[in-house]
Amino acid sequence: MQPAGDPYTLTEAEIQEPPKSFWRSLRFLGPGFILSASIVGSGELIATTTLGARAGFTAFWLILVSCVVKVTIQLEFGKHAISTGESTMRSFNRLPGPKFGRASWSIWVWLAMMLAKTVQLGGILGGVGVILEIAFPALRREIWLSLAAVAVALLVFRGYYSLLEKVSLLLLALFTVLTLVSVGALQWTEEYRVSWEQIASGLRFDLPAGMVVVALGAFGITGVGGDEIMHYNYWLIEKGYARKTGPPRPGDPQWVRRARGWIRVMYMDALASMVVYTVVTAAFYLLGAAILHRRGDVPEGFEMVRTLSRIYTETLGPWAETVFLAGAFVVLFSTLFSALGGWTRVTADALGRIGMFDFDNPRQRRLAIAWLAWLFPLIWAILIFIFKEPVGMVLVGGVITTAILLLVVFAAVFFRYRCLPAELAPSRFYDLSFWMSVLAILGVGVIVLGSAVGWLGGRG
């Protein structure tokens, strides 16, 4: 018997009416901002700025599309979590197709891709180590990144949802302010000022041939990625959206009314966070295109941080390197912190579905999350010690994220047309937006696979 208060167990006793006013709804926002804190580090600071440095303004449209096009997929996952109370991997275990042992093929495929994606977080951890070495050169970056790995593990090991939400919101707010100040400073310079003509040139849906791999990596990693969409269900559940809706009862007018109300709040959460990370993403792209591209500087290797610092120092002066280091640390550490919170939950869920323990048992679930909170940072640290190429590692993770998106899209279509109660069906406009997102992501996925085949053929 599971105790009351477990967010993954729905009971009648914990039902709560959804807020009716806009202002009261704001109190219940948060899950999307945890995702935003996870997104802005690797996608915005590293991948987006690197794409801007290489392509100039021409790929600006791709970054904007990447931020907007995935949101309806995220919303479909969120609706499924609220209406069923199911965690992501529990719902994946219901997807059509064969099972191997106790788990669906989709869970095994995700586990394989997740192992490959650990390289991305290793690159981010390497960036944190470099920042701390520049700021405090008494210790080498290897020691600093090891200490950062321990710090993020300890925070997630000891932290529950409320801590994750509050720290993520604080770090995200600080980072957003620093970024927008830097973009505003561009307009006060002669050399780096951005004109409307330059912005318009980036909205023509052109893409230089040599930029395909970097652009695809950036597409996968900017905006809400496949892994962040999968994490979203856990944050919604732990925030209490499903618990407040109550056990699923399609056909019951009271349950339908509550479900619609909490789904409406979830829409606000997802859209508000989308606005934040889209503005920040656009800002970083413009900084990369306006400053680094004009200078011919491309972030590479462990010199990545010093190269990226020029997006501050070239507009604000040499003193701004300290501001940049503080902001970059906030960004990358928030990504590690938020990503580790999501990774521990979804991986624990996946391991539970293949039979290693009972994820639905609160005690076993907490123990698994605690162990994984230490295991993942250890793996990330080992990977950066081996590869020593933070930018390349992050971009490889972006391509893998695009592949994960294909699995996520398949699940979203299944949730929309096979699982969602008819009473919760969305409008035709929403469905049109949903299918536009699906087709856009599938199109990019085909390009990714084609590029991979061509690369392998060239090596052969």
Gist of the model:
The protein is mostly helical and 460 residues long. The protein has 19 helices and two strands. α7 (141-158) crosses α16 (320-353), α10 (212-221) crosses α18 and α16 crosses α17 (362-387).
Write the layout of secondary structure elements.
Blueprint: H1 22-25, H2 31-55, H3 60-69, H4 71-84, H5 88-92, E1 99-100, E2 103-104, H6 105-135, H7 141-158, H8 161-186, H9 196-201, H10 212-221, H11 226-239, H12 241-245, H13 253-295, H14 304-308, H15 310-316, H16 320-353, H17 362-387, H18 390-419, H19 428-459
Folded structure, characterized:
This protein has 460 residues and is an all-alpha fold. The protein has 19 helices and two strands. The protein has helices spanning 22-25, 31-55, 60-69, 71-84, 88-92, 105-135, 141-158, 161-186, 196-201, 212-221, 226-239, 241-245, 253-295, 304-308, 310-316, 320-353, 362-387, 390-419, 428-459, and strands spanning 99-100, 103-104. It has a two-stranded antiparallel sheet. A hairpin with a 2-residue loop joins strand 1 and strand 2. Helix 2 packs parallel to helix 8 (161-186) and helix 10 (212-221) crosses helix 18. The relative contact order is 0.21. The model has no long low-confidence stretch (mean pLDDT 86).
Low-pLDDT regions: none
Radius of gyration, taken over Cα atoms and rounded to an integer in Å: 22 Å
- Major beta-sheet overview: 2 strands, antiparallel
User: Average pLDDT value?
Assistant: 86
Individual helix count = 19
Q: Which overall shape is indicated by the principal axes computed on the Cα atoms?
A: globular
What is the strand arrangement across the widest sheet?
1-2
Helix percentage range? over 70%
Could you give the count of β-strands? 2
Distance between the termini: 57 Å
Percentage of β-strand residues: under 5%
- Overall structural class, as computed from helix and strand content, comes to mainly alpha
What order do the SSEs take from the amino end to the carboxyl end, as H and E?
HHHHHEEHHHHHHHHHHHHHH
